[in-house]
Amino acid sequence: MSLARASSKYLFPAVGAVGAIGLGWHFYSSRIYNDTAKTFKDNGEWIDLKLKDSWNISANTKHYVFELNSPEDVSGLVTASCLLAKYVTPKGNNVIRPYTPVSDVNQKGTIEFIIKTYPEGKFSKYVYDLKPNDTVSFKGPIVKWKWEPNQFKHISLIGGGSGITPLYQLLHEITKNPEDNTKVDLFYGSLSTQDILMKKELDKIAAEHKDQVNIHYFVDKSSDDWTGHTGHITKDFLKENLPAPSADAKIFVCGPPPLYKAISGPKNSPTDQGEVTGALADLGYSKEHVFKF
Ligand SMILES: Cc1cc2nc3c(=O)[nH]c(=O)nc-3n(C[C@H](O)[C@H](O)[C@H](O)COP(=O)(O)OP(=O)(O)OC[C@H]3O[C@@H](n4cnc5c(N)ncnc54)[C@H](O)[C@@H]3O)c2cc1C
Ligand SMILES: *[C@@H]1O[C@H](CO)[C@@H](O)[C@H](O)[C@H]1NC(C)=O
Ligand SMILES: *[C@@H]1O[C@H](CO)[C@@H](O)[C@H](O)[C@H]1NC(C)=O
């Protein structure tokens, strides 16, 4: 299966008349026969999902498709949310990690993730080795930021590496809704051009929403044909390209610890955003302007 076909097959299933009729029918029948039709109900239950398919999208990152409880189910998530995934080691220890789906919240029957594999990573190594029909326990959802259409006039998404996942959720949710006019700037840093995750999906969104979406790619190591930026996302670049601090604009940040340190400062804990420090603080942004995933 080619990468392009695989990702379009699962991420954009509603393309074409047949898909539209199919979705219409599923919506209708699930309303009649099952009011909720959500696999995840935030009731504390661990639910085993079967791995349907997985494929490499970069040297260290894989795309995973899991089957929901029923082909009629939606996940039950809203944008932006994550799920907890659990792996019980042979010694009986629980390894629990949060992951952010990249599939549409209304997608029926499956849910998709993008997970970076760390050489010594307890959960990511485990999931990397799973075969189709193996299961993983998930629990949730955990809502990180409940997006409402036109919540802000302008949002800026600043991310690095696999931190793209919640930012992609927001970008996708906003641009699929013709009523949502929020302007979106994405500043996305990667190690090299080969490490830019979901570039095809991101470029498609940008091309289809030229007046609404701007994507600024940054890579540490560039190649000869690279037309994006080289180096880290800098304070000077943000100064030129972010809207001035205001209640109409919000900045969302997600990435590895060094990115938080440089751009926004770290979170104190999952429930405590901490003060804004780093480049954003220097540029006059404070707690009310910034959300750290
Ligand atoms: C809300 C949220 C959403 C997330 N969504 C995603 C997502 O969509 N996709 C994704 O890929 N990830 C996501 N993550 C990250 C994910 O939850 C895991 O942290 C990640 O997969 C690593 O888990 P692991 O068990 O594989 O690695 P771990 O065993 O936790 O180790 C991770 C790496 O850190 C190193 N390490 C471990 N302990 C230490 C230490 N004490 N000091 C220094 N280095 C150490 C390991 O060697 C390894 O390289 C998310 C995180 C959060 C908080
Ligand atoms: C996926 O990537 C890993 C690590 O780079 C590699 O060893 C493996 O052969 C790749 N698998 C496929 C199907 O390309
Ligand atoms: C997975 O399960 C399905 C249905 O039970 C079966 O048809 C399929 O062959 C299995 N796939 C693998 C790779 O075992």
UniProtKB/TrEMBL annotation:
Oxidoreductase recorded as keyword: yes
Keywords associated with the record: FAD, Flavoprotein, Membrane, Mitochondrion, Mitochondrion outer membrane, NAD, Oxidoreductase, Transmembrane, Transmembrane helix
EC numbers, comma separated: 1.6.2.2
MF term (GO), any: cytochrome-b5 reductase activity, acting on NADH
Classification via Pfam families: FAD_binding_6 (PF00970), NAD_binding_1 (PF00175)
CDD domains: cyt_b5_reduct_like
Gene Ontology, cellular component aspect: mitochondrial outer membrane
SUPFAM superfamilies per the UniProt record, alphabetical: Ferredoxin reductase-like, C-terminal NADP-linked domain (SSF52343), Riboflavin synthase domain-like (SSF63380)
Translocase in keyword set: no
Gene3D superfamilies: Nucleotide-binding domain of ferredoxin-NADP reductase (FNR) module (3.40.50.80), Translation factors (2.40.30.10)
Predominant subcellular localization, coarse grouping: mitochondrion
TM stretches of this protein: 10-28
Its membrane topology: Single-pass membrane protein
InterPro entries: CBR-like, Cbr1-like_FAD-bd_dom, FAD-bd_FR_type, Flavoprot_Pyr_Nucl_cyt_Rdtase, FNR_nucleotide-bd, OxRdtase_FAD/NAD-bd, Riboflavin_synthase-like_b-brl
Cofactor: FAD
FAD-binding FR-type domain span: 44-148
Catalysed reactions, semicolon-separated: 2 Fe(III)-[cytochrome b5] + NADH = 2 Fe(II)-[cytochrome b5] + NAD(+) + H(+)
Entry-linked PANTHER family: NADH-CYTOCHROME B5 REDUCTASE (PTHR19370), NADH-CYTOCHROME B5 REDUCTASE 2 (PTHR19370:SF171)
Family affiliation: Belongs to the flavoprotein pyridine nucleotide cytochrome reductase family.
Name this protein carries in UniProt: NADH-cytochrome b5 reductase
Organism of this sequence: Australozyma saopauloensis
